[in-house]
Amino acid sequence: MTVLHRTLPREASGMADSRHYAIETKALTKRFGKHVAVDNLTLRVPTGSVFAFLGRNGAGKTTTIRILLDLLNRTSGEASILGLDCVKDSLEIKRRIGYVAEGQKMYDWMKVDEIIWFCKGFYSDWDDAFAAELKHKLELPGSRKIGEMSRGMQAKLALLLAMAYRPELLILDEPTAGLDVVVRRDFLEGVIELIQEQGRTVFFSSHIVHEVERVADWVGIIDKGKLIWCSPMEELKSSIKRLVLNFDEPPASFSAIPNVLTVESSGRQSEITVKDFSPQAVAAAKSLGPTDIRVEDLGLEDIFVALVGKSEE
Which long-range contacts (CB under 8 A, 24 or more apart) does 34-37 make? Predict the structure, then answer.
């Protein structure tokens, strides 16, 4: 399958006003020896968005986030958060953002109230009332030791610690990995509800695509280190459609249809997924002489598979 490269066209010439973007990278690259983990990544995350950064395991999501947080040196390119350079202004950035890592480690022997008190000392902007509100909303038991809590409860506690000082940007790296499906859904929806109340930006990575569709309004898709799509969720869904065609005699080729991503045929029926969907695609499909044709909307998971291919796992 040909990899689709798509960037933000509206600001193609030069770096845009950084006030409009919570995160911005330009030609960001990271190599580990001969392996290119992040490949010429140019990404813009609009301020105030809920931005899902999607890719299979090993696609480069965590590497990108670690570079943004100055936890890993970049090989080349530029990266900024809140208009600040990710290396030169690293300390200022950490003061203004919240971060929850996959499987975040905390002191198991501490109780919930103890670690809240402990972390409060690191932030001059810590909001006791908001921390108490989060603790109530997330149903966290103040007297429970962290090591005795479930992974879901620990993930909620990590979220509280990342939000109690009201960061301008919240970065979540695979925040629901290892949680069961019900906990994942409740966790993500709870996060988004809390953040939207504050009007802040959320940037979260995930390889579990179906859980993203309910909460994200922007989507970036990375595959083998390359950004292959970046747009609002609705633009993505309106651009990629499936044509379902029935034939008495299937054609030898579907090359007449523009921008084909995938073709799946079974008997007399063929399903063709296309990008940049338009009336011209339908007209081209009709020219092949089907007995019946219909256009189907796709969910995010089907779109993701069409763009990056089926899992190799």
Answer: 36/225, 37/63, 37/225
CA quadruple 249, 250, 255, 260: dihedral sign? positive
How do residues 24-48 score in pLDDT, each as one tens digit? 999 999 999 999 999 999 999 999 8
Mean pLDDT by 10 residues, the chain (313 residues): 38 47 96 95 94 93 96 96 96 92 84 95 90 88 92 86 90 77 72 70 86 88 96 96 94 92 92 95 94 95 89 46
Contact 209, 54 (CB under 8 A): yes
Contact 43, 230 (CB under 8 A): yes
| Proportion of the chain in helix, strand, coil states, percent, rounded to 5 | 30, 30, 40
CA distance 270 to 310: 18
Which tokens go with 12? Answer: 């193609």
Q: Rounded to whole angstroms, what are the CA distances from 268 to 215, 246, 253, 298, 302? A: 38, 6, 14, 22, 22
Q: What is the DSSP letter of 3?
A: P
Say if strands 169-173 and 201-206 run parallel, antiparallel, or are unpaired: parallel
Place of tokens 């990899």: 3
Burial class from Cβ neighbours inside 10 Å (0-12, 13-18, 19+) for residue 2 reads: exposed
Q: Count of CB atoms within 10 A of residue 91's CB?
A: 10
The answer for 143, left when phi > 0, alpha when psi is -120 to 50, beta otherwise, is alpha
Alpha helices in the chain (DSSP H): 61-68, 90-96, 112-120, 128-137, 151-163, 181-198, 233-239, 279-286, 300-308
How far are the Cα atoms of 32, 233, 256 from residue 239, in angstroms, in the given order? 35, 10, 18
